[in-house]
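Postdoc handover notes: sequence design on the structure in folder B. Input tokens:
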């Protein structure tokens, strides 16, 4: 029998972990530079916490956890079988599943804020890097288990927060040397459009459909709306909005003509212009107003952000938006927040495809000391400690074996420097340092070894 990782999940080898940590460390360093504080939440949440927060499609992708033991008692089992026989599947599921794996980090964060409101200072700037799970069909760039790297500011209505989060996005991808386009929209604009075509009550259905425009095209979106009960006249009204093009300023001008005096739409356009102007002041020029951007999550109420890599065929690699009352579902009203989430796994795939990981990421150990025997390795221990105290990563080969084997180990591990310290070097108080890339060898005094690497 062959044992493999579950489909949609992966094992990570040491080199892959070094590359992943490069991404995580880059994101964390930017988060910290903006004053964000780290938290963690459990992998499991109550289904009552998770259900109904992600829309109908999101609810279908929740991994539900089977309760352990209790429902197997005979009286429970009989009730369960009767419920299934009657076709009440949702009721049956609730009888055997009370918990689920988190779908994202935002809803658990809202629950966290309500639980710990007396322990944190508002506005609260949090970051969180943990795995999430979705019962999705695995494919390129889409996994069942993957990491999100979230940052949220909660307890403030200021649109400066949106600008700061977009600045963070820009800084992270600049450091990763990945060219991206930052797409921006506003949920209020989408709500106004739904209202103006006479279907304000169907905003979720509209946004889910138009969010697929880049995947299924205009005709596909229209067909989905027609099959969902919209009339050809509704589609005709909506089509000019979907075809808006030009610069950000030109798109806003065209949209303003469509929106007219609609109060919610005008407010959305005003918020959009404010954020775009702040980003312009920050010299962020790779930002695009995209009227079709919807991100089908029910809790967004204002700005919506999504990031696409310019040179890789990949879905969204970062997303987020404003949610005015997410904590209200847990009993804490009128607490506005805005957040973003980096998709680390997709970013990894982009950097790998474009070969953008720096060479130093491939190196976990800076220096390997060759083991010539007991006496020599004891001296190596002292020198290795000196280098570690200076921040270098060092290893001593654990066994005194053939030089060829030890050098092969250094090559396979991509270790850039090897130190040779045999009887002659001990007698002369020296050490030979070999550059594994160039093959050059240098002899230095043992007390000068740290200076060589500086």
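Designed sequence:
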């Amino acid at each position: 029998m062959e044992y493999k990782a579950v489909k949609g999940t992966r094992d990570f080898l040491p080199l892959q972990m070094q590359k992943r940590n490069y991404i995580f460390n880059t994101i964390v360093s930017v988060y910290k530079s903006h004053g964000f504080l780290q938290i963690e939440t459990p992998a499991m949440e109550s289904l009552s916490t998770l259900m109904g927060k992600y829309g109908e499609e999101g609810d279908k992708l929740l991994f539900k956890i089977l309760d352990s033991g209790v429902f197997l008692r005979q009286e429970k089992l009989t009730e369960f079988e009767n419920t299934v026989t009657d076709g009440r599947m949702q009721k049956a599921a609730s009888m055997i599943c009370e918990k689920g794996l988190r779908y994202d980090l935002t809803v658990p964060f809202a629950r966290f804020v309500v639980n710990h409101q007396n322990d944190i200072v508002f506005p609260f700037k949090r970051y969180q890097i943990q795995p999430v799970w979705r019962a999705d069909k695995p494919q390129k760039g889409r996994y069942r288990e993957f990491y999100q790297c979230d940052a949220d500011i909660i307890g403030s209505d200021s649109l400066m927060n949106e600008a700061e989060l977009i600045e963070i996005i820009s800084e992270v991808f600049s450091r990763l040397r990945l060219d991206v386009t930052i797409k921006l929209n506003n949920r209020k604009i989408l709500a106004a459009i739904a209202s103006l075509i006479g279907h304000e009550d169907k905003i979720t259905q509209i946004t889910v459909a138009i969010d697929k425009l880049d995947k299924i095209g205009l005709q596909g979106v229209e067909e989905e709306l027609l099959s969902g009960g919209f009339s050809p006249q509704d589609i005709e009204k909506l089509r000019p909005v979907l075809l808006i093009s030009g610069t950000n300023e030109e798109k806003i001008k065209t949209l303003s003509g469509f929106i007219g005096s609609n109060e919610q739409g005008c407010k959305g356009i005003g918020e959009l212009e404010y954020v775009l102007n702040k980003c312009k002041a920050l010299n962020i020029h790779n930002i695009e107003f995209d009227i079709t951007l919807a991100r089908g999550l029910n809790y967004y109420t204002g700005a919506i952000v999504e990031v696409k890599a310019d040179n890789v065929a990949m879905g969204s690699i970062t997303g987020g938006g404003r949610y005015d009352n997410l904590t209200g579902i847990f009993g804490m009203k009128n607490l506005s927040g805005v957040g973003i989430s980096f998709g680390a796994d997709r970013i990894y795939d982009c950097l790998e495809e474009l070969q953008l990981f720096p060479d130093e990421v491939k190196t976990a150990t800076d220096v390997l000391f060759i083991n010539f025997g007991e006496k020599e390795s004891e001296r190596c221990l002292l020198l290795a400690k000196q280098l570690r105290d200076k921040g270098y990563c060092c290893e001593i080969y654990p066994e005194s074996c053939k030089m060829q084997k030890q050098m092969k180990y250094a090559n396979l591990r991509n270790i850039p420097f090897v130190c040779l310290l045999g009887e002659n070097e001990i007698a002369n108080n020296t050490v030979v340092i070999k550059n594994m890339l160039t093959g050059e060898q240098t002899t230095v005094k043992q007390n000068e070894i740290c200076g060589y690497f500086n």
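Context for whoever picks this up: The chain has two domains: 14-62+103-353, 363-453. Don't rerun without checking with the PI first.
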